[in-house]
Design brief:
alpha+beta; 7-stranded mixed beta sheet; homopentamer; 321 residues
Chain lengths: 321, 321, 321, 321, 321
């Protein structure tokens, strides 16, 4: 589905184009054509391939989707695949955006995601002096938008981790905590698979040999790269903490078990003593003088009570009860 | 066993050749000879070595099989070994294909596998403009086919993992889950040993110094490389998740044990109290007035029943029962 | 908030400047302007950007803070972000300092931290022969101060670890130890995120291609780099030891549980024997001769006592009690 | 102890030499002197050092043995140390071979090992066209022999691991399995220390800058390198599997304990119920009508039996018994 | 404290110098001044700085000590810091030696260690042809001595590990074993921190760009480097084995607990049966014919005895007792 198709000259919007006129504008070196599509059909992709003369392998990648984030050069044209990651109701969803960056055009194709880039186009049109930098700047602006949307996801994951951490040492929470940590790790890995390849990719957009379209905007890509490094550091921190937290959960279970065992042992001991006493006076020997005493019974009960009480006190003091 | 032996010129099929005529065609630079063998005998290999003038070490590798995936240059000729990985009835089987890529010939030798490449030859013959690119393109087409067949294997492994994950927190499944995770890890490692060396290998087929036969098809090999990186990322994800899942299984066992222990303790406590009561009234003291009461017995039973009931209620409420 | 704004010539203090005169002094190549700000407002930052002609992206980073430590070159000017790490009441707090290093100016902006650099300025003014080395030396002096303040933090973390280690094998401390180790790991990671990126950064300030401002002070930056390597080695050591210590804690819990179990088993055994004995003489058979003996009862009690005593002795000797 | 000392010209055996004549033959560039020693004395080494003008540090290494596998260049001469690894009665033994490779000589010194190289010399003498390649080829042939002998060791270790894996989930085997896995890891590490440094070493014998003696035989060394990579991959696989297997063993122990606990709890429950019943009818209340019934006793026994039977059935069904 | 201060020419000892004359000898290019100090005062260091014109940062490092092992070039002069590691009564102590290597001087400063280098000087003076190689050779000789002293420490650590391994599967040793393994790991890490940075350092003293003073002695430094690689491999092996051993200890504890639980369960079962029997015959039913039998009591005892005996036999056979 076509969203926009606009031509710019010197950073100023010329016109909204019908798709068929794209190639007419591309012959003018000072024009920039910026097309945005979403959830494209095969026919649309074929049109685009023709209008922009795109390489077959790249079009295949854009068509099939489910690409790993990557940047590939096909002659003058860059093909970039990025993941659009969103947090909806504590669940992660992943869409994709494929971007073709030519000498004087930008084609972005967004699939399976509601995150749109209208704001990017607006901001670019408001700053013609930057838009004048050409396709490289638009490419940066789109990438920056994609990466900026990773931050709230990381923060959400971090706060989910903190929520688990607060209950980490609570009794009886181990099963729930472990299940949540396991689930959280799965989510973190989804984000990681969006971030790490993109980080490697942006590292090639400044400093050394840089694709021609990005030469004038190296400092901007360094900034994006820096953001990705920061996000990645947070991700690694979360991942590592999850591993440690699972370990801690395991320990918590054992410690709790220890405590249950001690209480079990203590009560078993108290009742075993009582049972032994009543067993003794339940024996049928003929000559057991205390059985004849008038106060034998209350004395016996008191003795049993006192002994058990004393044991209870001892266990209490030593922390077993 | 010979499968095909065909000569092409400019991407067009010339003729099916008898094996002995191969060297006659090889002298023509514009001819491409494409030979496919399977489960070869020593004699066949010797013939091939002679017809194509192949290096002794490479022939030895093709003969003995069980090679690690690799690419070696012997002068103009490339020798490539790849694993053919199949999933049959949830079990992984590994065959091998050895490919010799010369300036104007391709020799593929498939061993211990039913995966065939007839489809590749067909598609190539249907697209003469690509087949015209020469042995490098055929090499790509074969490699692409091999790698494409890894995808369903990865997906099968991933879905086996998901099946385990669904039962991960079920009670009493720990032993079965761990056994399955262990088995799954073994399978994943088999695939990994097919993928990782091949990934390193294809990384050398584009970008920097590239073997002459592959110069015109670099973008295709980059595509294969990209597929392998994606497969490898999935593999690593599965491997890591398995490790975490085993850890989680361990925790589950401990947690379950905790629950058993608590129930054991609770019931032991209830019965210990009952036993203590009946023991008291089983004592043989002469002066135990309640023994004489008409309603002593039912009162005693009621008292015991109430006490145990109260304990049961308390344990129930605190989650021990 | 402005702290200082001073111009130097040949290492000698010329004058305290009002902010607006900065650009007047900057035109003199032999002048060095050194400005220090803290907790800046947007307006102050805008003034600074104008006076020193700073790059927009760098100013954005300084404004938003929460940067990963990094060094970026914008033309002639270096932008450096560092973390200021402090230990207050056993809790770690992190502030930031952003430094702009130009050919003949230094601008430092400190945020969310009480650690000040007045001592640095004082020492520099006392050693004009070093201050004469220019902005690179001031940059070194500030960085050295930041890094020197990491040492007491590392030492505090190490001593917290030692405090835990001393109680590592104490009984009943497992839960507290694990909670403390977990907390300690969190703190260590905070410091690590301050140190590692800065270490990578300083590694670029000597040896190979070095930013012009730092060429004359390479040996000093090597020294700072060396300090960071040392700090990092300590951090890694602490981190690794924490992991091992958690493992040890887990073992301790199991061992303690073993001991509890053994004691439980031993006492259960002793009382089970006593209960069996008293049960036997509580049976109602008519012909149980020992029941008629005058000394049957004391004999029985003695027999029970002796048996239990013997069991107690055996359990004691085998270490179960 | 001298084993052989032979001079070759153009791949053809000239004569067995007495040790003193070695230097006479070395002056002829077209001669190759190949000396094999074993368990040398200091005197023999001194003679060799003199005859071949070997470097003192290398001779020291050969004398003391217990070297890490390595390759060192001393001017024209290569010094190589390799481990000879053997499996005798499921136990690993490690010997050493030191090889000096000169422009036209080979000196091999074997220590603490019964693995000999007579077969290598025989094969080389049978193929004069290869032996003609000079000392580099002999060096390859010796190294190939050493590396080929690692394969059966790896296979033995793999089959030991498989033997353990088959019993991994058997009950009551945990202690034995863990002990064997620990022992197996020790053995694997011995082999690893033989293989990894040698692998790094052979990687330098083809491709880039190669010692002069090995220039003509690069493809052979690439083959050896490839073997070592394969061995190393197997080793890493075994090592990783051992770690996972120990983890699995730990889980198995916990699971088994769970089962024991459940059975314990079930039986304790059944007997606790029986004990409570008989305790009730052992009370001394005067008015317990059922005690007077003629069939009270068999009824009571039946009731107890039925209740316990029902409990048994319930526990059986829920898998606790 | 000054130990020695000697001037050499062409490897021959000229004279013991008073410290003040050092600079007089240094002007002669063919002289070598070799000074050894220990536990220096600030004044001594200041003198040395003056006599040898040493860089302030290096002097600071030597003064403060507690450096990470490192090598720094200050113009022509090398500054090297190494750890002196000793094993005294199974405890590791760490001292330091700082060495300044100039074109024609060597200054070694030893702190907090009793390991001295008198033997090095002696050996050097006995071999003037090597001492003639200049300051580089003395530097090598000192470094070689330092590294040689790591070997007995590694061996001691390895034998401590072996001592623990022998008791690894002994019952009741888990707590002691884990404590010792933890302690051993601490010691190993101390050695590691001495070895790894030094290993990296020596790797720069041969092969590529080498400091001028060490150019003629590259093969010697390669030898030292090789020793350090060997030591490091041993250290890594010990470290890895410790980790596995702790894992094994954990398993041992669980297995032991399993055994205790089984014995507990078995004895509990036996006594529960006995208690149930005696309880039955302790009931007060009027019509219990067996109570009237003459041999009722011995029969009952026999029945109980036989049943318990049979249970004992069954538990024994199934390994629970």
């Amino acid at each position: 589905m076509l969203i926009n198709c606009v031509a710019y000259r010197q950073g100023i919007k010329l016109a909204e184009l019908p798709v068929e006129q794209i190639s007419d504008y591309l012959v003018h070196d000072d024009c920039l054509v910026w097309v945005a599509l979403r959830d494209t059909t095969d026919a649309e992709l074929d049109t685009m391939q023709e209008e922009f003369s795109l390489h077959g392998l790249a079009i295949e990648d854009a068509r099939h989707g489910h690409q790993r984030p990557k940047l590939e050069e096909y002659g003058d044209t860059l093909f970039v695949a990025m993941h659009l990651v969103e947090m909806r109701d504590a669940e992660i969803t992943v869409g994709e955006v494929s971007i073709f960056v030519g000498r004087n055009f930008i084609l972005s194709i967004r699939n399976r995601s509601n995150l749109h880039f209208l704001g990017v186009r607006e901001r670019c049109e408001r700053e013609p002096e930057l838009l004048r930098l050409g396709s490289g700047f638009v490419f940066y602006a789109l990438m920056d938008e994609v990466v900026d949307r990773y931050f709230p996801v990381v923060e959400e994951l971090e706060s989910q981790l903190e929520a688990i951490e607060e209950r980490l040492f609570n009794k009886g929470m181990a099963r729930a905590n472990i299940a949540k940590l396991y689930e959280l790790k799965r989510k973190v890995n989804i984000l990681k698979h969006a971030v790490v390849p993109l980080m490697e990719t942006t590292g090639k957009l400044y400093g050394g040999r840089v694709p021609p379209a990005c030469v004038n905007t190296q400092e901007y890509f360094r900034d994006v790269h820096d953001h990705l490094i920061r996000i990645n550091a947070s991700i690694e921190n979360v991942r590592e903490t999850i591993t440690t937290a699972i370990l801690v959960c395991q320990s918590t279970v054992s410690i709790e078990q220890n405590e249950v065992n001690k209480r079990l042992a203590a009560w078993a001991g108290i009742f075993a003593v009582a049972t032994a006493f009543v067993g003794i006076w339940g024996m049928n020997f003929e000559y057991m003088p205390e059985l004849k005493w008038s106060f034998g019974y209350p004395l016996a009960l008191s003795l049993i009570g006192l002994t058990c009480g004393y044991l209870y006190y001892r266990f209490k003091r030593s922390g077993w009860l």
